[in-house]
Design brief:
This protein is 36% helix and 21% strand. The protein contains 20 helices and 27 strands. It is globular. The protein starts with 13 loop residues before the first helix and ends with a helix. A hairpin with a 6-residue loop joins strand 23 and strand 24.
Length: 722
């Protein structure tokens, strides 16, 4: 009898799975083998990750609870149950964050001559004098203390802003404006200005040391100067997190850009979903904050240390002390594209595979830059989801339009937390003469595609770039992504069809090579998984190997369970959320899940299906999530060049062998470091850096010198050797 693969016991809750991912990042901050400033960086990342998680995911669950929505998720948990579990897990996580900070990182930083003053009372006389002068000259003019009384209501506390709350009482001889008031405790608050650096360097009493104090400590030390007619009874920092999910009704929005601009302002008014306070905050002060901000008890987080650890990223970027960081990796040139070469001539010789950040992102920038100035280029079309702050691609597109070329750019205004940035770019491009579109109503455009139409001797030729990551030259230095340059006629036709679909209402009946969500992609993945299942049932070798950021689509997981039950060997490399469980008897015994957390952010999406030896490989912008398959415009493209196929298989191969930065999911749903006893240490990211520097994209010399024994071999020959 066929098992029911949709049982809730077979699935992990999405939010709890994400918290496990953030825990894996925190483990990097706790790893004694990693340089201290790198550990500091990872701790900062866990804090910024948690902020976004609360502003979006926890906020969404709060909205469901407020709407009395009780439908359980794929793991059988209601929104109320999920919120309760999230707070329980997160409070333990935060406690571990600050144990790591206080007991591990701070002592090691002190040993390295980097000191962070934990309380202003610890300042030396010289430092105290400097701090007071800095307060008077730099901080005081910026501050706006806000008292609360009958004439002054509780102020708007901005989302994510750090503040200092105080209880004050009137002095006996105050200014005449304050006469007649009682001496009861009153509440006051002051925002720690974000326009000033939070990490303030201090003159050090010792040579070769660096000493810092946090901005809020300086304000606390001088807070009595903000309330001259009052005695400050106590003062403690606090921070709130608000619902930042934008409720945009695109059907009723006559101008999407203006609607998003309007909704962005409402982020500051969203419901408070988390309140962080210093651990020793006065109970009366805490009660005042809780009542006025309407925060439930379970959403209050008592912090044993400085609130908001994202300031540590500034410490990581401090000048000097390179001995406390990894040596920066310099992305290498792609061997097929020499610096200064005509990129269209390079692509015309054959498809080119790019592997970032091991190989430089420069060819992608050059692709647009050369197209902008090439007199034979007639049109440029591109999708933009997230771009850098000073994007050379945006500048090139603007130049192209000003030169009279047809330039069409889809700027996704709904890219979360990049909305304001993208609005600025959209306006700049429009002013330059580009035709800017904002995508399809109700769908985010998450696909990564650029099309250049060029006039050549033998007619019009289309050059296409397809990728797994954003057109962001900044993040391309730290995100692992794959890209493909091609002038394939069939893909060129598909690329034109994509942009016609996005800019108008021209939906193609069929596609040559590209697979596009939300209409066609889900069915294709079903078909590919089902084909492997059939091969296994027929007694043939069957294998699926997939790499992505997240896996939480219940229907895809059920298909994988069915394939595993039939005997398909399934290897999944999933950076973040994974709602699938391994090791369930008769269901997922043939499924292996690993997660790589390294110095680069794993971001590429690769899908391999053995197909009875024919081997189908795809890459693209989509994860296996309902939003990617059903509510976004995504593009998956095939890898057909045999040499590139070998490169992509090698990437999967090395990542499956990673035993330094990989975690393996256990049958209990927890993640564990693999046992390395007696095995050659393999760090996939380090390996790819070495290969790129040697120009050896298949790692042939490394295979021989390090004697790798792959889990899943690049070729049948290696499998035989194993």
């Amino acid at each position: 009898m066929k098992p029911d693969f949709n049982q809730v016991a077979y699935y992990e809750n999405r939010e709890l799975s994400w918290l496990k991912f953030n825990q894996r990042i925190l483990n990097e901050a706790r790893d004694k083998q990693i340089p201290i400033l790198e550990r500091v960086k990872f701790l900062s990342i866990t804090s910024s990750n948690l902020d976004e998680f609360f502003m979006v995911r926890v906020a969404s669950l709060k909205d469901m609870v407020n709407a009395d929505y009780k439908k359980p998720d794929l793991a059988g948990m209601t929104p109320t149950e999920q919120l309760s579990a999230i707070h329980e897990v997160t409070k333990k996580f935060v406690a571990t964050q600050y144990t790591t900070y206080n007991r591990s990182l701070i002592p090691l930083l002190n040993q390295a001559g980097i000191h962070i003053i934990s309380a202003h009372e610890a300042l030396s006389p010289k430092q105290a004098e400097y701090v007071d002068r800095y307060f008077t000259e730099t901080i005081y003019p910026v501050l706006t203390p806000l008292a609360v009384d009958a004439a002054r209501p509780f102020p708007l506390i901005r989302n994510k802003s750090l503040n200092i709350a105080a209880l004050i009482t009137q002095k006996d001889k105050g200014h005449h404006l304050f006469k007649g008031k009682n001496k009861a405790l009153e509440f006051a608050t002051v925002q720690v200005p974000s326009v000033l650096p939070r990490l303030v360097p201090l003159p050090s009493d010792e040579e070769h040391t660096k000493t810092y104090i946090l901005l809020e400590q300086i304000i606390e030390k001088n807070i009595d100067r903000l309330f001259l007619n009052y005695n400050v009874q106590c003062a403690f920092p606090y921070r709130i997190m608000r619902n930042a999910d934008l409720p945009i009704d695109e059907d009723d929005a006559s101008d999407l850009l203006k609607e998003i601009q309007k909704q962005l302002k409402r982020r500051q008014w969203g419901e408070v979903i988390r309140l962080e306070v210093e651990e020793k905050m006065d109970p009366n002060l805490l009660s005042t904050l809780r009542n006025n901000l309407n925060v439930p008890k379970e959403a209050i987080y008592s912090i044993n240390g400085p609130i908001d650890l994202t300031f540590l990223m500034k410490l990581y970027g401090m000048d000097g002390r390179d001995d406390l960081r990894y040596t920066p990796y310099v992305p290498q040139q792609n061997p097929r594209i020499a610096p200064g070469a005509n990129i269209f001539e390079c692509i015309a010789k054959g498809d080119i595979f790019l592997h970032h950040p091991y190989e430089t992102f420069d060819p992608v920038v050059e692709f647009i830059a050369q197209a902008a100035k090439d007199p034979e280029v007639l049109a440029i079309k591109q999708t933009l989801y997230r771009v850098s702050g000073n994007s050379p691609i945006i500048a090139a597109l603007a130049r192209a339009a000003e030169a009279g070329k047809q330039v069409t750019v889809l700027v996704e205004l709904k890219a979360r937390f990049d909305e304001e940035n993208n609005i600025v770019w959209a306006k700049k491009l429009e002013q330059s003469g580009c035709h800017v579109i904002y995508g399809l109503v109700g769908l985010k455009t998450h696909s990564k595609i650029a099309l250049v139409v060029r006039r050549e001797e033998d007619g019009i030729k289309r050059y296409v770039h397809l990728g797994t990551g954003n057109y962001n030259d900044s993040t391309a230095k730290t995100y692992t992504d794959c890209g493909l340059f091609t002038c394939s006629e069939l893909i060129g036709e598909d690329a034109t069809a994509v942009f016609n679909m996005l800019s108008g209402y021209s939906e193609p009946a069929v596609w040559n090579k590209l697979i596009v969500a939300p209409i066609w992609l889900r069915k294709m993945f079903y078909r590919l998984i089902e084909r492997e299942t059939k091969h296994a049932l027929d007694g043939k070798k069957a294998r699926i190997v997939c790499k992505m950021n997240s896996l939480c689509d219940q229907h895809i997981i059920a298909k994988l369970y069915e394939a595993s039950a039939a005997g398909v060997e399934i290897y999944l490399i999933i950076r973040g959320i994974c709602c699938l469980k391994t090791g369930i008897p008769g269901v997922s015994e043939h499924i292996h899940v690993s997660s790589i957390v390294g110095n680069f952010l794993e971001h590429s999406r690769i899908f391999y299906f053995y197909n009875d030896g024919l081997e189908d490989i795809f890459m693209g912008s989509a994860d296996w999530m309902p939003r990617n398959l059903d509510r976004r415009v995504e593009i998956i493209f095939p890898v057909e060049d045999e040499a590139i196929k070998q490169q992509v298989k090698h990437i999967l191969d090395v990542e499956l062998m990673d035993n330094l930065k990989a975690y393996h999911m256990g049958d209990d749903g927890e993640y564990y470091r693999p046992d390395r006893r007696g095995k050659t240490p393999v760090g996939s990211q380090k390996q790819f850096c070495l290969e790129a520097m040697e120009g050896d994209t298949l790692g042939n010399s490394q295979w021989k010198s390090r004697k790798f024994i792959p889990i899943w071999a690049v070729s049948e020959e290696r499998e035989t050797e194993q």
